[in-house]
Queue: 3 jobs
Job 1
Amino acid sequence: MLQWGIAFPSASDWFTAFDQELMRSKVQLASAIALAATVLTALFGAQGSGAAATTPIPVAAKSNTPMAYVSTPVVQSLPTDGNAATDNQADDAVTSDHSADADSLAQLVAMQPSEGSVDSQMRCLAGAIYFEARGETLEGQLAVGRVIINRSESGRFPASYCGVVYQPGQFSFVQGSRMPSIREKSDDWREALAIARIAVQESWKSEAQGALYFHAARVSPKWRLTKIAQVDDHIFYR
């Protein structure tokens, strides 16, 4: 129908257009629902499998290897340079304490090593025993040796055996800061060395324990000291 020059659709045309639009909306909705269902299925399926739903972040792997401990101590070898060992070490290597096995001082002397190097300090100590008490009993020689050692440890005299022996005006056998020659092949020297080792080890008790001074029994100095004992031809004081 034509009115005022404008054409209007009929009622049947309106219903036909409405049905077509409704059908198109239903199709779009169905497509949207199907798409949503597909996405949800994919998401739930991924979570069920344990796979990451986002971009994976690299993580440092933790090592399951157990820590190992060394149960055996490792000792580093020392240099085998022959000059590395001191005279003291060499002398100690051949010196042992047999006091527990000895019934007498003579037996203990016989147990001492007859060979081995002698360092300068041990030579000074044995030299003083050799020149001061050679020919006396072993107990007398030991008492002389202990005086040298006691002085070196007292803090009132030089702190070494040689320092004590060579201290000016102390021992008459020292002349011009020198010790006379020693017959090193003699039994007296071997005995003096053995007594010196026993005195250092304190493996036999001296009859003049703690003595710092002595003099020959034939003289009578006016010493105001405490007398400890007389052993052979010497009188000992502290």
Job 2
Amino acid sequence: MFQGSYVALVTPFKDGAVDDEKLRELVESQIKQGTNGILPCGCTGEAATLTHEEQKRIIKIVVETVNKRVPVLAGTGSNSTAEAYDLTKYAKEAGANAALVITPYYNKPTSEGQFRHYAKLAELGIPIILYNVPSRTGISMLPETVARLSKIDNIVAIKEASGSLEQVSKILALCDITVLSGDDSLTLPMMAIGGKGVVSVVANIVPAEVAQMTSAFLEGNIQKAKDLHYKLFPLCKAMFIETNPIPVKTAMKLLGQLNGELRLPL
């Protein structure tokens, strides 16, 4: 299930509130253009600024709008295990296909603390996708910790946003877990060493091209995948000239797809 292009969907706001109607419109547009799955409430969705009530409502709206046409990966992470448990439990009840859970940020747990955090969430029975993004959390997951967690049945994948192909190589040398790129510019290189796809920021504005690139590689059409990689590469880099999702929301505003509204402190 977890391969290809998953969009890390932006959260649309209108006068400070979540714009439910625009959210549904964005989901429909993504499915129409071939995106393989939808991730609401990730870093690109400004989850850190959402209340838990808003986060749950967004997950519910996305699941209902998708209506089982593609998988939904709900962002349910927190630096509090109890809060992450509550959000992940809700995602399961709402019908999400999996939960994407960021490593606990700010409090910087040890490897053992990380293991226990994810093991607790795995008790809920919903597929769990680990999310390693040290640039945001201040801590990275060791490949050995990933390998240990992969032995838990419903911990099925990892979104790797460390920017390191060495990290991915070590993970895949130690265990059989699905790796999804968390860096758009590294999607094809990661797939070349065993990754299965991407959770993409740039897919908010070019969903068809990102989906085509990942599917071309998975189907063995390496030249097409490479051509699309180089076509998308400058755009991928441009999406990170400021803190994500400032550039992608600005791009969507320029394209007439969104009002570009962000929440403070962004």
Job 3
Amino acid sequence: MNTNEVREDQFIVGNEALSKVIASLNRTLDLNEVLLKCLEAIKIGLDSEASSLMLLDNEKKNLKVSMATGPVKDEILGATIPKGMGIAGWVLDNNEPYISNDIKDDELFYKDLSPSFTTRNIICVPLKNASGDPFGVLQAINKIEGLPFKKEELKIFQTLSMQVSTAIERSKIYEEQEKQLDHKKEYISELHHRLKNSLSVISGLIEFDIDDVQDEKARYLLTFTNSRIRTLAKAHSAQSDGKNEDHIQLDEYIRDIVKNAEKTFDDFDQQITISTDLKPLNLDLNRSILCGLSVNELLLNELSRLLEGDTVSEIKVSLSVSDENNVSLVIESSGSSDDEMPGIKNGKPNSRFIVKSLINKLDGSIEHSVPGQGSKTEISFTL
């Protein structure tokens, strides 16, 4: 095989390498990965000693080496040349490719960016945005074995530059969308924080007024209303403190609701023990609120029974998730049996009627049973 045949085979292999990289560029959003693949492809595809990518800085005053390959890659990384200077500056200003196979006699050449590297020849093409405006350049430097860069190599190099330009622009758009998403998350978190504060203020005002209420029924209604407000406030508090903008830990949320219920029981001088067995579950905010309100209503129902003369000594709240992703939320109470089913009592919906309405929004079910002494209410739904 003669020298020309060897060079032709190398050119074919180089083109194949560049083609593979061009295809891979369309599948990545990571800017550093894009640049690295690009420069490695240039070095292999054009059989060059070094390659570099230079981008305009934010002020559009200088071209900066964003990534490089070759013997002095670490030394020149971050180096800059003034916009309009050198071959890279000419390519950027004229938005045209440039090949120079005799640098020492080329008036456009600016200077070597490292004293330990000498440029012999160079091929440089612009990077363009969707509007066709240049924002950087790609360069291959020093053809191995002292060979010249050829015009036929320019076509594949320009094709690569178009794909790289698209990938870089896409990465910039992605990064901007990520920033906007972060701002949105911060806004949503702040919104929930403000809602929590507002609800807490309302709750505090109601609690302040309760002490002056003499009518027992009015005090009873205000206290129950306040408990529901605190339940909502706890959800917004959990969301604003969390890292996930639309999920909270349901088990922790229910634990807070139980503490809230214990305070409500104490307000009515009802001594009762509430225990929990809550398995960890991360759930979206909307369904968590529905679960929380349901648990709160069922606990308030137990308080209602106590105030009406029933005997309840202990309440247990359980949360579990089966292997089939079925969620089970159970409230059990000891003492006298409670066979009340969802319906209307004294012309008004009772607690379980309200809970059933809430659970319907979960596409779940509610079952009430009387296992000997006490009662058991189970809420079920699928994740």
